[in-house]
Recover the amino acids of this structure.
């Protein structure tokens, strides 16, 4: 019974989004606004976790929306809109990561909370910056954003096997540098 | 989500990643900025789409004007001075009659 309600709710949401997309294709500003409001939070969060910079993440999210609405005609199925949007966003983030200098500084800083949490956050950011853009992206999308292997593969435009192998390498490397960093601090 | 990690991923790291996750605060102006950028993009695309037609129209108008100008009958006559004006233009001194000196009669 609960599942039926959830499925029905999901179906209604999908129908609503499909209606917004049809109107957005005709240039309806209200429909575009509704779509942006629905997806912006998660999109900015994904970009912020990849780039570790809130301002840059907002900028990337804006670019992703602009590109998505410009290329809305390429979208075959309305239900694939969020995937379409994340794919654009992830690729824009990847471009930015690749254009950064390898020894880039950690830009995001603590935002209140306990000192340990802030320290952990800074350490994770510092260690993530040591990974290659591909490994970093895979690790963040899977471990921080909890996307499935298939979703990560779709957003990054690589086969699932590549995601698995990258994730394996990323976990191995991250764990090694994490142990080195935390044991050195103790 | 419940997939077994091929590499051991300690709970410590799992919680570290959870702690390091950023929760953004979306600015209210986000939608407004995006809408104005979308409008600008639409305008740019429209101009880009119509620019060949606009250039062709401008070239056609220019060509037509040139053609009309060439075929137009000449309304201003070229200056051909009449005899009086020609005289006026002449820089030569007026010719005075010369009288022959007559021998004196004694």
């Amino acid at each position: 019974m609960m599942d039926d309600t959830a499925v029905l709710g999901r179906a209604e949401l999908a129908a609503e989004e499909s209606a917004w997309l049809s109107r957005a294709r005709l240039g309806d500003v209200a429909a575009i606004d509704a779509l942006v409001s629905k997806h912006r939070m998660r999109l900015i969060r994904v970009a912020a976790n990849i780039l570790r910079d809130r301002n840059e993440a907002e900028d990337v999210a804006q670019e992703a929306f602009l590109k998505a609405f410009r290329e809305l005609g390429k979208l075959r199925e309305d239900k694939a809109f969020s995937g379409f949007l994340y794919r654009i966003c992830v690729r824009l983030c990847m471009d930015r990561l690749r254009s950064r200098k390898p020894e880039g500084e950690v830009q995001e800083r603590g935002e209140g909370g306990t000192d340990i949490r802030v320290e952990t956050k800074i350490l994770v950011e510092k260690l993530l910056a040591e990974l290659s853009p591909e490994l970093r992206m895979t690790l963040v999308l899977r471990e921080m954003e909890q996307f499935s292997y298939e979703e990560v593969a779709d957003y990054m435009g690589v086969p699932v096997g590549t995601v698995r192998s990258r994730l394996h390498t990323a976990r191995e490397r991250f764990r090694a540098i994490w142990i080195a960093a935390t044991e050195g601090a103790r | 989500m419940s997939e077994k990690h091929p590499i051991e991923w300690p709970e410590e790291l799992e919680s570290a990643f959870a702690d390091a996750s950023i929760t953004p605060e979306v600015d209210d102006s986000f939608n407004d900025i995006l809408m104005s950028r979308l409008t600008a993009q639409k305008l740019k695309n429209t101009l880009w789409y119509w620019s060949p037609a606009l250039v062709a129209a401008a070239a056609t108008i220019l060509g037509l004007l040139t053609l009309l100008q060439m075929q137009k009958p000449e309304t201003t006559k070229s200056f051909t001075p009449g005899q009086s004006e020609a005289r006026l233009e002449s820089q030569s001194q007026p010719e005075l009659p010369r009288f022959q000196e007559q021998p004196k009669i004694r």
User: Anything to note?
Assistant: The domain at 111-186 of chain A is CATH 1.10.10.10 (Arc Repressor Mutant, subunit A).
